[in-house]
Structure formats: structure tokens, C-alpha cells
Design goal:
This protein is mainly α. Helix content is 56%, strand content 0%. The chain is built from 13 helices and no strands.
Length: 230
């Protein structure tokens, strides 16, 4: 009987000892380990933050997705990691979750960590001079341009963004896109792709070449014709 009691005591001590290994407990890894999601709650698909965008914008879009549980800051804290990736996720998992006593403290640390992105955001001058690369299609360029434009602070309205984009174009694009600069950005891209195709097939005149020809006519400067046999 005594021997059996010693064995039982040893097993209990072994289990209790395993629970006490510092840094390996569930509670050491998890934000709000005692919080469970409401029964039937459908987990939202969050916009992912990789460490390169505006942290304040991400916090707003994240909270906006938490329909039904946004008032429970414990759930807000528990799910936040699901909206992070790459550098942002690496930063998050390197933190001690026990230091965040509430949502405000976690959100504040997050915003401070990536404040650099806000302080070094591109300005209007930058996007106005963001030109198309020779290897890019119009669609690729427009997508890259818009991804940079959304980083401008203070943030641009959709109509402002469209106007700046159109005014950043070469003449053969500008003269045709300016008539729809008040439309959706997707409409501008569609027309831009048609203009691009027209230039490739020769259906759309290269405005720069036309202007150069007109200037030559006005100045009376014409390329010399080659004589036969030369």
C-alpha cells in the first residue's frame, strides 16, 4: 500500500512539474487564454498587415471586421494575430503577451512599432512623378501606382487619386483619359488598356511624335531626303 502511494505521488509530481516549465505553457503563448469565441461565431477574413502599410488604417479595418464581438476587447486582442503576416507577425510573436493588459496597450505598441511607415509615407509630388516602366503593361503600372497612392498622407479621396493618376500620364494617354477622370479607377484602367492596345496596333496616334512633326512643319525643318544611289 505504501509502495503504491509512493508511485502515485511520483506521477502527480511529474505531471505538475511538466506544467511548470517556464515559457512552454499554453498561457505563455496565447493572448487571453481563458477566452472562448461565442458559439456559432463565424471567423472573419481579415485584411493582412505585413509591416509596410499604415498601422492606424489597419487597426481601423481590423476592428471594422469584428461584427458582433467588437465590444469585447478580450476577443479583439485574441484575434488580432490572425490579421498579421511577415514582418508584422514576426514582431508580434516576439512580444510577451502578458504585458498587454488591455486592447489599448496592445494597439498602442503596434502603432508605435510601425509608426515609421506613417512618417515616411509618399507625398503627392512622388506619385505625380511615378512613371510607367518600359517593361510594365498599363494594368501593372496602374496597380503599382495606386498601391503607392493609398499610402499618401493625408489620405486622398477617390476623385483626387484619379485626377493625379491621369495627370501623371504621357500625352497619348492623358488626352484620352482626362475625359473620364471622374469615373471609377477601374474604368480608367480599362480605357488605358484599350489605348495601350491601340498604340501597339497603330490605331492610336503617338501624340509626342505628332507634336514633333507639327513643330518641324512650323519651323520649316524637314529631314533631308536621300538621293537615289545613296
Amino acid at each position: 500500500m505504501v509502495e503504491e502511494l509512493k508511485k502515485l505521488t511520483g506521477r502527480v509530481q511529474s505531471v505538475e512539474g511538466g506544467k511548470g516549465i517556464d515559457g512552454l505553457n499554453y498561457e505563455d503563448f496565447c493572448i487571453q487564454p481563458d477566452v472562448e469565441l461565442p458559439e456559432g461565431y463565424k471567423l472573419q477574413k481579415f485584411e493582412m498587415f505585413d509591416g509596410t502599410g499604415d498601422p492606424k488604417v489597419h487597426l481601423k479595418t481590423y476592428c471594422d471586421k469584428l461584427v458582433g464581438v467588437v465590444k469585447d476587447e478580450r476577443i479583439r486582442m485574441k484575434l488580432f494575430m490572425r490579421s498579421l503576416t511577415r514582418d508584422a507577425l514576426s514582431w508580434y510573436i516576439s512580444q510577451n503577451p502578458k504585458k498587454w493588459v488591455n486592447w489599448e496597450s496592445m494597439a498602442s505598441d503596434f502603432k508605435d512599432q510601425f509608426r515609421f511607415n506613417m512618417e515616411n509615407a509618399p507625398d503627392i509630388f512622388y506619385i505625380q512623378n511615378l512613371n510607367k516602366k518600359p517593361t510594365e503593361t498599363f494594368h501593372e503600372y496602374a496597380t503599382r501606382w495606386r498601391s503607392e497612392a493609398v499610402k499618401v498622407r493625408p489620405a486622398l479621396e477617390e476623385e483626387q487619386m484619379n485626377k493625379f493618376f491621369v495627370r501623371a500620364q504621357d500625352p497619348q494617354y492623358y488626352e484620352r483619359l482626362m475625359v473620364i477622370e471622374n469615373h471609377k479607377f477601374s474604368d480608367i484602367i480599362k480605357l488605358g488598356k484599350k489605348i495601350e492596345e491601340g498604340i501597339k496596333t497603330g490605331m492610336v496616334t503617338n501624340v509626342e511624335a505628332l507634336q514633333a512633326t507639327n513643330k518641324a512643319l512650323q519651323l520649316g525643318v524637314f529631314p533631308k531626303r536621300r538621293k537615289q544611289g545613296q
